[in-house]
Fold this protein.
Amino acid sequence: MTSYKELGLVNTREMFAKAVAGGYAIPAFNFNTLEQMQAIVQAAVETKSPVIMQVSKGARNYANGTILRYMAQGAVEYAKELGCENPQIVLHLDHGDTFELCKDCIDNGFSSVMIDGSSLPYEENIALTKKVVEYAHQFDVTVEAELGVLAGVEDEVASEVSHYTKPEEVVDFSTRSGCDSLAISIGTSHGAYKFTPEQCTRDPKTGKLVPPPLAFDILHEIEKRLPGFPIVLHGSSSVPQDEVDTINAHGGKLPDAVGIPEEQLREASKSAVCKINIDSDSRLAMTAAIRKHFDEKPGDFDPRQYLKPARENMKKMYIHKIVEVLGSNDKL
Ligand SMILES: [Zn+2]
């Protein structure tokens, strides 16, 4: 058993309470490579932001759980080395699908886990979440649950259609399951193709796809019923058009990729939404920089030559999200 406390990590409890009270949201960036980790830590330190570094089941299989644990510990030490005296870094499991996986993460240094029972019948979702909460709380690990289903594809999590969270269920669910935060479905979606062109309208001036707006009425109804309770938004990448254009201009093929407009995430950050998950934007920033580099310098073959601009491009994106969208800067 390795407690996250030994690694210098924190759970989400105090972080979320401050974020809800302060009207901002904590960035939850997915990672599984050294360069992503370095860029996340540099961005968080430079902006004085708390940060959640999260790992999906697929990412954990890719990078190896033991390595990730030491990377998270390395992230804390690296933040200190960069001049941050008291880094607030969470290592979080994104979309845990079984009690056993959540337990394994808790036993191996994670400070927060998500148990995603959203595809189960309601009572089974409560029972599974409660089981994880009872184990996690013994070790002061916080638990995120999900109610409602997001559309889109994220690693092994995939659904064709979304089902919005029903506000009338949130009090019963959070009370009986004991979860510390709740991921809801209000129209965000996993992946870089969040909406089909048919679901969107086209901006007559630019010809670009405009996605349907988020269901803020549902969010506000949930806030009313669960005052001050931490709410989480998954699938909240914005799929920046300039990165998509760079990828497509340098041999890539991402037609009609669509994300969530940043104005809507900015608005959500001011509400009870206190954690916003961003994964695809980091993938796009990394891929755009690497494609551009290879196109311009086809003779390069040292990974550092193309991973350095990739890391810089991700860092720029992380800083932009923290300062311009979530408002979690200057909170340490
Ligand atoms: Zn998700």
In short: The chain has one domain: 4-326. The chain has a mean pLDDT of 95. Residues 4-326 form a domain with the TIM Barrel fold (CATH 3.20.20.70). The pocket of zinc ion is lined by residues 95, 154, 190, 234-235, 277 (CB under 6 Å).
